[in-house]
Amino acid sequence: MRTIERAQAEIDRGRLWRAKDILEGSIANVGYNLELYEAYGVLLLQMGDLPKAGQFLFLSGARSPHYHEAIRIYLGRYKSPSHLYSSFPRGARLIDISTYPPQVESDLRAFGFPTNVSLFRANANKRTMPVDESAGLRTLPSIVLGLFVLVLLLFLILGFIKFKELGGRLF
Q1: What DSSP letter does each residue of 130-144 carry, written as one string?
Q2: Distance CA 83, CA 25 (A)
């Protein structure tokens, strides 16, 4: 994969931040790619970001002994399958648990994931704040009153200017 090679070249130059930019951009565009996730996780591990490294190393399915601490920290942050699932990058939010790599699938089952995770998507839609369609109507009187006050002030200012032009005489 050319992206990983470019990132590795930046790492070799000591520019970890640039390698991170390259890999992050690809993750957003490529989707669920195990090799890319592992490379990004290893880079984050080098940078000392254990929780984020654990996220990508976990999803990569790679289970090197060097990765265990980061993965443990990442998984320790989540108490329920739906919260863990919501932390996955968009490209890694697969619908059927059996489509994950075998190691990831096994770990997700141990975490209590259902076979079909589309249930999480339905629940996520329910958790959004309800839209109050009447809220706009309730603010309408305030808006009208505010406009009325502005127009009144405008007339007062124009009247004062006209009064000054007439030399302070009313008629």
Answers
A1: PP-TTHHHHHHHHHH
A2: 24
- Pair 26, 108 in one domain: yes
Structural domain tally of the chain?
A: 2
Tens of pLDDT along the chain (171 residues) come to: 599 999 999 999 999 999 999 999 999 888 899 999 999 999 999 999 999 999 999 999 999 999 999 999 999 999 999 999 999 999 999 988 899 999 999 999 999 988 777 656 544 444 444 445 555 567 778 888 888 999 999 989 988 887 777 776 665
Same domain for 11 and 81, yes or no, is yes
* pTM for the model: 0.67
Please tell me whether residues 39 and 78 are part of one structural domain. yes
Contacts 24+ apart (CB under 8 A), 10-17: 11/43, 11/46, 16/43, 16/46, 16/47
48 with 90, same domain: the answer is yes
